[in-house]
Amino acid sequence: MVVGRGGYKFQNWAQTYGSSPELYFQPTCVEEIKEILDLARQRSKRVKVVGGGHSPSDIACTDDFMIRMDKMNRILKVDKEKKQVTVEGGMLLTDLNKELDKRGLALSNLGAVSEVAAAGVIGTGTHNTGITHGILATQVVALALMTASGEILECSEATNPEIFQAARLHLGSLGVILSVTIQCRSAFRLKEIQFSSSLQEVLDNLDAHLNSSEYFRFFWFPHTENVSVFYQDPTDKPPASKANWFRDSFLGYYLLEFLLWISTFMSGMVPWINRFFFRLLFASKSQRVNISHKVFNFDCLFKQHVQDWAIPIEKTKDALMQLKDWLEKNPHVVAHFPVEVRFARGDDILMSPCYHRDSCYMNIIMYRPYGKDVPHQEYWVEYENIMKKVGGRPHWAKAHTCTRKDFEKMYPAFGKFKGIREKLDTTGMFLNAYLEKVFY
Ligand SMILES: Cc1cc2nc3c(=O)[nH]c(=O)nc-3n(C[C@H](O)[C@H](O)[C@H](O)COP(=O)(O)OP(=O)(O)OC[C@H]3O[C@@H](n4cnc5c(N)ncnc54)[C@H](O)[C@@H]3O)c2cc1C
Predict the structure, then answer these.
(1) Cα 195 from Cα 379, distance rounded (Å)
(2) Which pLDDT tens digit goes with each residue over 349-384?
(3) What are the FAD-binding PCMH-type domain coordinates in residue numbering (predicted)?
(4) Taking 70 as the threshold, does the pLDDT of residue 243 lie above it?
(5) Residue 30 CB–ligand 1 contact under 6 Å
């Protein structure tokens, strides 16, 4: 029998949100998950499942029952011919990457970190970049879901197709994702070329950049014209690195944290910091080749506040120029670098920010040097205003102030998803404060 423990304190990775679940469970099998849901029903408790706990919001928080899936982390099946792998929902992508390496396979795209769970990354619409690639959930070809009643639903394009299109970006609201089947590709190495440019050049030639590299992204350094462009493309070349020494040794980043901390007393330093670090870390061209996941992932060294909206791709220039103009007109507002700009192909996943449109993701951050909060409210509000004006949809895991009324306008399939959720979870077992704002 599975036993829940009291007194556990949950904190997300950035330590910006947490909760104190009444009972905390770490089930090891499907039967134990069913027991937990049975107990929750008997006691009228809500349930929240947590994967890697990396969401920079309260989406995974609960004060009732929390299920951490870290003991359900096995590979269940590998279909070498189809290059598909079925894993338990709690498997971290770090472990999956290693297992795929051994089998000559790889995920075709990945976000910045892999300490996230297979069911968790798809739960919030995690994405990377590359206009021929959708968000990570588009790599999912099947999944198994345990609903509030304890029933197990197998879902794919062929079986329960409507629930499948909802569950590929489930928001933790449909039940417990037991397993996920992912379409992989043959293992590959990526060559990354990083070079500097200006915002005007990149925005004027966006199509050319998008067509020049499979995984194109750029960093804009606010309060400057500086841009760092990253082209990442599959290669047969052996691993090699001609990178920037400061960047590789992380020394630059420790210096950055210290200077950002000083800038909390002298905010006027921030534009200077952005310029200085562009010169130190990104002004010269660098190049490296490595296994795909080692190039997709990078060490996120500092805690930060973050917003990341997806806007229609044709609005990229308009939105970035509006943000730049506003910062120039309001010099008392400071913005940390980088504004990371990435791209994703449109899809048909009901709650995907890229639903039915190719999109540009514009990620803004404010670091919290040594855990200290930096004022960012004015910047946050104006960024959201601009994103809304250009028809944006917020990343589900990151900060936003949207509620049901906004989502109804943003998502043509919102009503459909809501209907599926209400049918699968009639008592609201999987709701929490975050989801109440989304649905009520
Ligand atoms: C350092 C860092 C870098 C990041 N980089 C990127 C990036 O490059 N691109 C990007 O798009 N995002 C990025 N993110 C956001 C991150 O990818 C998402 O928050 C992702 O959802 C985290 O996965 P997780 O396993 O930690 O999920 P959690 O935060 O644990 O959970 C996310 C949601 O999934 C639900 N859930 C988890 N497991 C299950 C399950 N088995 N069944 C049902 N529901 C479940 C939870 O209840 C919650 O609703 C980053 C976050 C951090 C902290």
Answers:
(1) 28
(2) 999 999 999 999 999 999 999 999 899 999 999 999
(3) 17-187
(4) no
(5) no
Judge if the beta carbon of residue 145 lies within 6 A of ligand 1.
Answer: no
- Best of 17, 37, 54 for a ligand 1 pocket test (most atoms within 8 Å of beta carbon): 54
> How far apart are the CA of 110 and the centre of ligand 1, in A?
12
pLDDT tens, residue by residue, 244-278? 677 766 778 889 999 999 999 999 999 999 999 99
Does the CA dihedral 359-105-232-121 come out positive or negative?
Answer: positive
pLDDT tier for residue 295 given thresholds of 50, 70 and 90: very high
- Tell me the backbone φ, ψ of residue 4, rounded to 5 degrees: -95, 145
Burial (CB < 10 A; 0-12, 13-18, 19+), residue 430, is buried
> Distances from the Cα of 175 to the Cαs of 62, 66, 296, 328, in angstroms?
15, 13, 30, 46
3-state SS string for the chain: CCCCECCCCEECCCCCCEECCCEEECCCCHHHHHHHHHHHHHHCCCEEEECCCCCCCCCCCCCCEEEECCCCCCEEEEECCCCEEEEECCCEHHHHHHHHHHCCEECCCCCCCCCCEHHHHHHCCCCCCCCCCCCHHHHEEEEEEECCCCCEEEEECCCCHHHHHHHCCCCCCCCEEEEEEEECEECCEEEEEEEEEEHHHHHHCHHHHHHHCCCCEEEECCCCCEEEEEEEEEECCCCEEECCHHHHHCHHHHHHHHHHHHHCCCHHHHHHHHHHHHHHHHCCCEEEEEEHHHHHCCCCCCCEEEEEEEEEHHHHHHHHHHHHHHHHHCCCCCCCCCEEEEEECCECCCCCCCECCCEEEEEEEEECHHHCCCCCHHHHHHHHHHHHHCCCEECCCCCCCCCHHHHHHHCCCHHHHHHHHHHHCCCCCCCCHHHHHHHC
How far is Cα 175 from Cα 170, in angstroms, rounded to an integer? 8
How many angstroms is it from 332 CA to the middle of ligand 1? 33
- The answer to whether 107 and 94 are in contact (CB under 8 A) is no
Using a 6 Å cutoff on CB, does residue 120 contact ligand 1?
A: yes
Contact 439, 421 (CB under 8 A): yes
The residues near 176 (Cβ < 8 Å, ≥ 6 apart) are 33, 37, 47, 49, 67, 89, 145, 146
Cβ count near 3 (within 10 Å): 9
